[in-house]
Amino acid sequence: MTGLEDIAVATIVMVVLAGLAAGWVDAVVGGGGLLQLPVLLMVPGITPVQALATNKMGSVFGTATSTITYYRRVGPDLRTAIPMAVVALCGSFGGAIVATLLPAAVIKPVIVLALIGVAVFTAARPQLGRAAALRFTGQRHLLTALAIGLIIGFYDGVLGPGTGTFLVISLVAMLGYDFLQASAKAKIVNLATNLGAIAFFLPSGHILVGLGLILGLSNMVGGYLGARMAVRQGAGFIRIVFLCVVSVLIAKLGWDLFVEWTA
Q: How many CB atoms lie within 10 A of CB 67?
């Protein structure tokens, strides 16, 4: 197992910088794993599952920080967010188990196609998410939220990158929240998915705890700054960052697929 004493200082610095940037991006619109995972995979001797597990540990600190910041400043409705978070935690735990068995290459093509659809859909509807216009009420609203939480929670446990992004666009497009409210609720759910994955990865020994703590501290700083900026700038700013993050996710995952298929 790789320990901190085995990791070069330059690599640790890169992990810290990636954690800061990922915390900021995650707090605004999700997708911070896009920055963290590639850097973690550069750590000598680390396995893909260890990188995924350690990424979860680092992310949970930043997500918790941005969740608290959003809650204090936006006040999201917990009647939807908490049940959604509970089923997402269960889905993420199940996904983490599958992650140790299923090659990521099986899932990546589907995710790239989904992201392309999300980008086109969002870009073609400039008013989407600028103002709240809830599509359902009562039980139908809750059941839709629970389905979103379970499916995306499972994905977060299996693979991870883009989880917050998928949560935000699902809450905007399927339930009718504005981008700010969607981001606030997504943080609560994403915190639960991270905890669900950690509940499996930590006892099974896949997490590099020392590196995860370093990543977590830098993630906290980025998460706090990102959440404050998102609240201050509002839904329009979040929409722009959202489209940028989705575009980068498509490019990154698409390039990974190209490399794998041409190797």
A: 25
Handedness of CA 219, 72, 136, 123 (dihedral sign): negative
Q: State the CB neighbour count (10 A cutoff) for residue 127.
A: 8
Residue with tokens 């979860």: 56
The dihedrals phi and psi of 115, each to the nearest 5 degrees, come to -65, -40
pLDDT of residue 106: 64
Q: pTM of whole model > 0.85?
A: no
Dihedral over Cα of 48, 51, 54, 55: its sign: negative
Closest of 20, 93, 17, 23 to residue 53, by C-alpha:
93
Quote the pLDDT of residue 167.
Answer: 92
Q: Which of 45, 112, 63 is nearest to 227 (CA)?
A: 63
Q: What is the mean pLDDT of each run of 10 residues along the chain (263 residues)?
A: 68 89 86 80 83 89 92 88 95 86 66 77 76 85 95 85 84 91 92 90 91 93 92 85 82 81 80
What residues contact residue 60 under an 8 Å CB cut-off, 6+ apart? 191, 194, 195, 198, 216
Tokens of residue 45, six digits: 């001797």
Sign for the pseudo-dihedral over CA of 110, 125, 188, 223: positive
The residue type found at 4 is L
